[in-house]
Amino acid sequence: MYSALLKRALRPHATVIHPAVCILSIVTSFLIPSPLLYLFIPPSHLSLFTINTTRFIHIEPCIFKLMASLHHQCIQLFFFLSLPIFQFSSAAARDLTDGGSSTLNSPAMTVQYHNGPLLAGKVSVNLIWYGQFKPSQRAILSDFITSLSSSSTGSVGQPSVASWWSSNVGKYYRLAGSRRKPLSLSLALGTQILDESYSLGKSLTMKQIVALAAKGEQNYAVNVVLTAADVAVEGFCMSTCGSHGSSRSAAGRSSSSSRFAYVWVGNSETQCPGQCAWPFHQPIYGPQSPPLVAPNNDVGLDGMVINLAGLLAETATNPFGNGFFQGPKEAPLEAASACSGLYGSGAYPGYAGELLVDPASGASYNAHGVDGREFLLPAIFDPSTSSCSTLL
C-alpha cells in the first residue's frame, strides 16, 4: 500500500512534494532512527529517500514546508489525526520490504516496454549553449558526447563512456528489437549553437526551453539545451535538475508523427549544487559525507555530465513517451531515474559507491573518455535483470 502511494506521490518529470510523502516521512522519522530507516527501505525505493541528481526530491524538506504552511492549531490537529497511522506504521515498514532484495542493485520493479519507437540510426547530438560558458566548460560536455561513440574506444581506458552506453542502453535496443526488426543507435556530436546574449532573458519557462531546442536541426537529432549558472529555469532546483521531452518539428506540423527529441540541463553551481551536483558538493539534506573531487575540476559542469548522461539514456529509450518506463506516463520512472543516486557498487543514501580515484588529482570517477577525460556516470536500470547496473 505505502509502496504504491510513494510511487504515485513522487513525480520525476515535473515533480512536486506531495503531502502524502510528507506524512509518511514524518511518521517514519518518529518511529525509526534515520540510519535504521535505510535498512527497512527496499532498494527500489532508496532513490526516493535520497538526492535525485537528475530530478531531485528529498523527503526532509517536506517537514519544513508542511510546518511553514500550517498554523499552530493545524499542526496540533495533524498530529492528533496521525495517531492511527502510528499504530500500524511498523507493519507498513515490513510491507515496504516485501518483494525487495537484500542488495542495492536489485529493485523490486520492472521498466516496461510500451511498444513505441526508440531513437534509432545515426543521430546527432546538437548542443545549444544558453548564457555564458567558458571554452573549457564547453569542451567538457563536447568531449563527453564524443566519448559516447563506440568508435572512440580504441585509445580510451576502461571502463569507458562508450562501454557504459553500449552495455546499458544497448540492452533496451536488443529487447525492443526482439519484437521488431533489429534496432541500433549511433550518437555523434553535431552542431553547437551559442546564445551568449541571453536572447530570452535570464528567467526561462519550459515553453521557452522548447523554443530554444527548436533552433537545432530536428531530423535524426537530439537537441540539448544547456543553461548557464546565472539562468533560472522553471522548476530548476525546486523539483528538477533537467528534463527531456519531444515537440512537433517545424517541418512536420501537419503530421502528428513528426516530432523531435530534446533535453535540457542546467548548471547548478551557484543555485543548488547540493541537489544537482552531488556527490561533488555537500548535500543540503540527508546523510552527510565529504564531497568528492570533481574529475574535470568543475562542480557545476561535472554535475551537468551526470544529469545529461541519464537524460540521454532516457531520451534514447523513451523519446516520445511510449517507450520504456514504469508507472504513469505523465510521471514515469525511466532508465536513469529508476536508479538515481547510484554510481558504484555498494552505494547507499549519502554514499556514491566504490569509484575510481585519480592518483594525481584525487578526483572520483567511473568512466574514461576521449582525450584523457574522466567522468562520473549514473547507474542505469537493466531491464533484463530488473536491477541497477553500474560500471564498477
Write up this protein:
- The chain has 392 residues and is an alpha/beta fold.
- The protein has helices at residues 2-9, 19-31, 34-40, 43-46, 61-69, 72-97, 135-147, 161-177, 206-213, 273-276, 299-317; strands at residues 112-113, 121-130, 185-195, 203-204, 221-227, 232-233, 242-248, 259-266, 324-325, 356-357, 364-365, 367-368, 374-375, 380-382, 387-389.
- The strands form six sheets. The protein has a five-stranded mixed β-sheet. A two-stranded antiparallel ribbon has the order 1-9.
- A hairpin with a 4-residue loop joins β14 (380-382) and β15.
- α1 (2-9) packs across α2 (19-31), α2 crosses α6 and α7 (135-147) packs parallel to α11.
Which structural traits does this protein have?
two-stranded antiparallel ribbon, 11 helices, alpha/beta, 392 residues, 17% strand, single chain
Number of E-state strands:
15
Which regions have little confidence, pLDDT < 50, spanning 5+ residues? 1-103
Taken from the alpha-carbon principal axes, the silhouette is globular
- Helicity, as a percent range: 25-40%
Order of helices and strands: HHHHHHEEHHEEHEEEEHHEEEEEEE
> If strands are numbered along the chain, what order do they take across the biggest sheet?
3-2-5-8-7
Name the assembly state. single chain
> What would you call the structural class?
alpha/beta
Nearest-integer average pLDDT: 78
Strand percent estimate: 15-25%
Largest sheet: 5 strands, mixed
Radius of gyration: 21 Å
Query: How far is the N terminus from the C terminus?
Result: 34 Å
Can you count the helices? 11
